[in-house]
Amino acid sequence: MHITNPIVFAALAAVGSSSPLFGPSSWVTDIAGVPGDGLGSFVSSWLSRDHKINDRDRRGKTIGELIERDDRLSRFQKTLQQAGRSLQDDLYNKGSKLTVFAWTDDAWREHERHRRDDEDGHDASNHHKKKHQDEDPEKILRYHIVRDHALHEGDFYDGQVLETHLKLESLGGQRQRIRVFKYRQDAVFLNMQAHVKLNEGEKAENGELYIVDRVLHLPIDLEETFALIPTEFSTLYTAAARTGLLDELREHEKERQSSGRNNQEGLTVLAPNNAAWKNLGYHNLAYLFSDRGINELKKIVQYHIGTELHYSPDFIKDRKVNLRTLHGKRDVEIEARRRHHSNDRSREADEEIVLAFGGEDKPDRGDGSRGRSPHQYLFTVNDGEARIVFTDGLSGNGVLHVINNVLIPDDVQLPSDLA
Predict the structure, then answer these.
(1) Which end of the chain is more exposed for a tag (fewer CB within 10 A), N or C?
(2) Rounded distance, CA 256 to CA 220, Å?
(3) Is 403:276 a contact under the CB 8 Å cutoff?
(4) What is the pTM of this model?
(5) DSSP states of 307-367 as a string?
(6) Tell me: the pLDDT tens digits for 143-154?
């Protein structure tokens, strides 16, 4: 079975069984293709492989011309030839500024094999079939191209979010992102799915060309992500289904598609995991999931769904973001602040999580982040009511940030408030 949502699966696998956030994860490592002896072994195996450095004369060549000259990239080149003229112009234009992650012919054959397996029913879940229907070659190609940035080898850092050439109506016309996972100086993965062979990168006149060993799948929708990871999000998913909110969101999406109007900007979900719901206590949960508390439960779920798209770089750039939610146009406030170890009381609680995701949790990491890595920040919600413990879970119709407590809007009263 291949990776369905590699970012979220990798998050679970990286934290492992010792983490209070995600709990046991042996099943996750199996799904994600990580060996049973752990992610460190998986990464180390990549580092031990022999790679031949490409020393061809590249002076004056564009990325498009370099692709033409590499016989490992014939399928990538064919897809480029079939794409729109504007995309071809970008790759051959010396004035462009791009980073291209080119899959090899072997990677494409593996991608096609998985697609055939899904269509033949080897994986019976409908979301796989829908996923492949949506993944036409040009969309996949655009998802492997980062616009307006020529990323050198030292520019990659863990937690980095890259804006690709792929625009999606389901994101309000915004461009889909790639999330970078970096475990050592030369161990860089995209969406924890494709390994970037940094020492086979080629500098061109209009950017950088890197070889990747797998084809990146387009991220699936938020609803599918929550449904596929019941050990973490079953309570949130059940709450959304029980209150009818899932049906409302599905109808909204159908209306958007049938009308041809794109009035959706993409969703930002602050996703409390099962442990966060457990923090509410038995009596509060029993009330919320009863017939008496169903209206209050719906308000709470709506309060976690933002109607605008915000990734962690937005929080870091603006320092404070007011996120408009589905609940009565009420906002939640997300604040980003630099970590200060000497007086940061939450550091110990976060330490395992930060290190597990590859972050060294240092102000200056020397890895190209220049203060932009999410590991260097604490993201608090509503002045400390909750904290974001994992950022930028990518989705086809939004982004999810995992939080450690359930947010309670000011018009909801729980049984514990009356005690």
Answers:
(1) C
(2) 18
(3) yes
(4) 0.80
(5) SS---HHHHHHHSEEEEEBTTTT-EEEEEEEE--TTT-TTHHHHHHHHHHTT----S--SS
(6) 999 999 999 999
